[in-house]
Amino acid sequence: MSRPTARVFVPRWVLVLGALAACGDPGADPPPDADAWQDVGPYDDPAEFPRDGCVPGGFADAAGRQAIYHLAVDAGGYTFPLVVRVDDLGGGGWGGVISGRDATHVRVSDDDLIVRWADDTGRVRAADLCARAGDGAIVAHYASCNPADPETNPGACFEGAAGGRALAPLDEPVAAGLALRGEFAGGPGAPWPVGITGDGLSVNVRVVDDVAYVARYHDGLRVVDVADPAAMVELAHVPVTYPEAAELWNDVKVVDGPGGTRYALMASNVDGVVVVDVTVPAEAAVVARFGTELDGEVSVHTLFVDGGRAYLANLAGLEIWDLAAPAAPVRLGGPWQPGGDGGYLHDLYVEGDRAYLNFWDLGMIIVDVSSPAALVEVGRFAGYGETTSHSSWVTQVGARRLAVHGDEQYGAHVHIVDVTEGSVDFGNALAEWQTRPEVSVHNVMAAGDRAFLAHYQDGVRVLDLSDPTRPREIAHFATWPGYDRRYGRSFYEGAVGIDLDTGRGRIYVADSHRGLLVLDLE
Question: Burial, 13: exposed, middle or buried (Cβ in 10 Å; 0-12, 13-18, 19+)?
Fold first, then answer.
């Protein structure tokens, strides 16, 4: 089975977590005099951008220019999030980040902040922040060029209107109702790498018998003893197999096999599901791989394990595999797509004979999986506005079966969806909830009438669902520090993945930069 190049399994416009990177002072250092920066190339001047909504003097307050800006770009039919960071380097110099890359040019004036990245192939990404309202709202415009020579081929560039705001921690205590018991990102002298330059980001975690299995993008799998959260110890590191193909491990699940064996299943963007024998955690090693090849690759973004089966979200849709022998799985069904829709399956929750499939712009599709070779759609949550169905978790509250459903975008909401089959509300949202439009929810879990959210820059949020028509926040822990040059490279950073130990009231958090955190409900 060939493994030629990485195909990152994301929607066409999403900037993935791999765009994050640790960094020092960003590249260019132009003088603040706008007249001294001329003819750098396309989109180096305010006049080259649309001026709709621009207001002179919007950035006259020099103290307010340095920030991390979260923006939503309207690209004529769909929107996508964009992060722009502006750094005051001192001495009249400015640097920054756009689309996860260090800016090659930053131009600052009282009227505009222009942050631009270009390379020698003619690719250009540029944003012009040209107005700031009294409430902090930003008006901006974005341009992207991909041709070899954008100056002679301007038709290959596109522009989009953008809006958003500078991002700062919410006006609240760092923690309420949750206490930090431990934090780990490598042992003494062996810190975990972070970002592209270090090839690692913590993105998901599963904990079994006080051993944490942390999926860390290009870094692979880290195995950690968490019996004492205040003194965690790394037991093993299993690197990705194909670093030359930019392989990343985005998800992890843990299963038991025959004879007391145990395995961590890692979702790989080029190698399907990578099976790691963790029976002896300190001796973790890859023993198998599975998944259906498509165009020379086996790309799996996320997976779910239930009832001795693995359910894979891959490029072709849903696949189902028997895990009676996890080192030698057997395919039972799939790949499956909803009839004729050709959706992008991003994540899923499975319980019994029902799978709740997050098919991105198609919505959450509920499928009968009792016969893996003949799947049947039984309902969906869709048509609720701009749809980026990202993840969900199902729980029982009173007589209602509820899906805690999260989109992933600028303006994303958590929807509490009635999935009680036979109910008049089946497939409909009972309520929605969000922290703020400029920060998206990511992974979600639920237990009884509590929902647990990994909420990127807004950290971990706990919701009370006892009245599902009025979800309310009852606890939080903020993991993100605010403006910091290690951050602000992507819309998708902060608290990314979670796992629960409901018996101890404990939450394990995979944080993009901080590694592994252990929280207790108070």
Answer: middle
Residue 193 scores a pLDDT above 50 = yes
Residue ranges making up the domain that contains 31: 17-167
CATH of residue 193? 2.130.10.10
CA distances from 286 to 237, 239, 261, 265, 279 (A): 11, 10, 14, 10, 12
Nearest to 435 by CA among 465, 468, 463, 464: 463
CA gap 281, 210 in Å, rounded? 11
Would the CA dihedral through 163, 168, 172, 176 be positive or negative? positive
Boundary-marking domain end, from 143, 167, 191: 167
Q: Is the dihedral of CA 174, 180, 185, 190 positive or negative?
A: positive
**R_g (Cα) of the chain, nearest Å:** 23
Is 2 within a domain? no
Would you say residue 324 has pLDDT above 90?
Answer: yes
The answer to the question of residue 105 being in a domain is yes
Q: How confident is the model at residue 13 (pLDDT cuts 50, 70, 90)?
A: very low
Which residues, 6 or more positions from 227, have their beta carbon under 8 angstroms from its beta carbon?
A: 210
Residues 89 and 56 in one domain: yes
Contact 250, 217 (CB under 8 A): yes
Read off the CATH number of the domain in which 108 is found.
2.40.128
Count CB-CB contacts under 10 A for residue 308. Answer: 12
Average pLDDT, the chain: 90
295-319 mean pLDDT: 92
The pTM of the full predicted model, rounded to 2 decimals, is 0.91
> Which phi and psi (to 5°) does residue 229 adopt?
-60, -25
